[in-house]
């Protein structure tokens, strides 16, 4: 059975929220769209709301999918959904840090190889959103 991991593209005032992973070792220190595994019985939107509450202490509304799903492991697909902050200020409860980046800063991080590899697939889609196209 395939599993889904959901990641949130939280955009506010032309900036994207990134979170720096603390684990596992091969991803530690890399920046990602925050999220996590969809649990049985959850929709992707429900899972994203739960993950962003647990990880960052924020309430979000979830919007449309961004880009195409990425296979992160055999039978594990990663999907990105747009999300908008409703309440709370993101705090890195499970990450090393958080950052708000504009389109140029996101491209620079991807070019430096400090973004989680799967997430770099969405760079064109995120770039267009951040530039308001
Ligand atoms: N990714 C990934 N990008 C990304 C996320 C949220 C996750 O490539 N933006 C990958 C990393 C892991 C897998 O998806 O291989 C599961 O993500 P993880 O560890 O964030 O999921 P959790 O938080 O549900 O995991 P555990 O609670 O540790 O089981």
From TrEMBL:
Residues 1-123 form the Nudix hydrolase domain. Signal peptide: none annotated. Its cofactor is Mg(2+). Gene3D superfamilies: Nucleoside Triphosphate Pyrophosphohydrolase. Its EC number is 3.6.1.55. SUPFAM superfamilies: Nudix. The keyword Ligase does not apply. It catalyses: 8-oxo-dGTP + H2O = 8-oxo-dGMP + diphosphate + H(+). Belongs to the Nudix hydrolase family. PANTHER family: 8-OXO-DGTP DIPHOSPHATASE, NUDIX HYDROLASE FAMILY PROTEIN. This is 8-oxo-dGTP diphosphatase. It comes from Williamsia maris.
